[in-house]
Amino acid sequence: MDFQQAWEKTPSFAGGYVKVVREKSGLLVYAHLEDAEIYNSNTTFNAPFFMEGDVFEMFIRPEGQEAYFELHIGPQNQQMQLKIESSKTFYEKRKTSPPVEELIGPYRIEQSRFQSRTRVKDGTWEVAARLPYRFLSSGVDVDAKTLLHVNFSRYDYTKGTKEPVYSATASLSKLDFHHQPDWDRLIP
Q1: CATH no. for residue 87?
Q2: CA pair distance 127, 40, nearest whole angstrom
Q3: Residue 8 CA to chain centroid, in angstroms?
Q4: Is 172 left (phi over 0), alpha (psi -120 to 50) or beta?
Q5: Are 16 and 154 in contact (CB under 8 A)?
């Protein structure tokens, strides 16, 4: 799956792609991200480091389940992991424009539940992650035969600029990584 900016009339972003392998016990995710300036100095587990530097994100919701997962990995293999119980309540809360900590705090998963590694090399960084199906389950059985709704996205920061460049693998009709109607489907 290639990164894109489907919501833009004139896309402008650094390239990259994601590959996913479904194993018996979970997903293997590999991301290759082109990046002229790779950085994110915040290495605190579960911190909102997406506001401070480069981030690769994984959004995953198993079919038949309202809850979905938002998982972040930074170039130094820092992680943030959220379990959002419902997109409806998330959007309702987001409408009030709360501070970031207030918005994401209730959704944090306090202990690391997936494995990841990163490698920074020659204007690119790579992510490899292993996500057990049991981690993605919230009220439904999730296994290699479960349809998964996914969006892989990124924040690509350049020092001295106010906003990052956003891109995603899903064909999003608007810049909103949480917009599930546009997410891709991983068919078993």
Answers
A1: 2.60.40.1190
A2: 14
A3: 20
A4: beta
A5: yes
Asked if 90 and 84 touch (Cβ cutoff 8 Å), the reply is yes
- In the chain, how many domains are there? 1
Note the pLDDT tens digit of each residue in 88-109: 999 999 999 889 999 998 999 9
Q: Which domain holds residue 29?
A: 16-186
Residue 1 inside a domain? The answer is no
Q: What is the pLDDT of residues 8-55, one digit of tens each?
A: 999 999 999 999 999 999 999 999 999 999 999 899 999 999 999 999
Look at residue 22 and tell me if it is in a domain: yes
Rg from Cα positions in the chain: 16
Q: Specify the pTM.
A: 0.95
Tell me the backbone φ, ψ of residue 76, rounded to 5 degrees: -100, 20
Burial of residue 21 (number of CB atoms within 10 Å: 0-12, 13-18, 19+): exposed
